[in-house]
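Progress note, sequence design subtask.
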């Protein structure tokens, strides 16, 4: 297996792989960590924050960034310190954003702060889901890619659709009289969309 990995990466088949750097996102690191564990090869990530990566089954995985278990708690304590009790929460259904949101809300409800606490949490699908669907739609039964002529326009349409989703989310916040929001997004494109919508609706908030 190690020889195969070395051949895939272009390394000499006679030089063993001694470590893995990455991945950037938690979803990718979870898959890679399972392989690293099987091969007993150390893996280190610079930005994967999912608490699941601290499970004993990933003994060969380490990282140089804190887990969402701490980041979510820290953000919740900041919201508490500012005295916010009515807010809208937007979170992505991907591993990173979902676990951050779960740790945030758990801490938000602790120490009696849940009295008079009023928030609306609205999820939105991961952009990975959209990309995976596009890949499925543009390959044959053998998995060979045959991008359609409208590949680019289809992706643009999907991004515009996401923007409309965010507009709908913030419209719901306004209807419920929420003027403060917290965002757990995945990817700078989503964050940019969300910030544009927030400015459009004159809302204030914070992002992960």
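Output:
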């Amino acid at each position: 297996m190690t020889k195969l990995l070395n051949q895939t990466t272009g390394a000499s088949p006679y030089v063993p792989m001694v470590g893995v750097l990455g991945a950037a996102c938690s979803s990718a690191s979870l898959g890679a960590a399972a392989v690293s564990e099987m091969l007993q090869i150390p893996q280190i990530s610079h930005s994967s924050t999912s608490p699941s990566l601290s499970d004993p089954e990933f003994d060969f995985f380490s990282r140089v960034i804190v887990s969402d278990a701490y980041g979510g708690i820290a953000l919740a304590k900041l919201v508490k310190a500012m005295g916010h009790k009515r807010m809208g929460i937007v979170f992505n259904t991907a591993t990173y954003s979902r676990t951050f949101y779960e740790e945030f809300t758990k801490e938000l409800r602790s120490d009696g702060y849940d009295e008079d606490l009023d928030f609306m949490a609205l999820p939105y699908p991961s952009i990975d889901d959209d990309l995976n669907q596009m890949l499925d739609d543009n390959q044959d039964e053998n998995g060979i890619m045959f991008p359609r002529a409208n590949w680019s326009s289809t992706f643009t349409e999907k991004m515009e659709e996401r923007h409309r989703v965010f507009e709908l989310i913030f419209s719901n916040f306004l209807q419920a009289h929420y003027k403060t929001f917290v965002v757990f997004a995945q990817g700078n494109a989503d964050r940019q969309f969300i910030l544009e919508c927030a400015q459009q609706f004159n809302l204030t908030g914070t992002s992960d």
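The radius of gyration is 21 Å. Work on this subtask will continue into the next period as scheduled.
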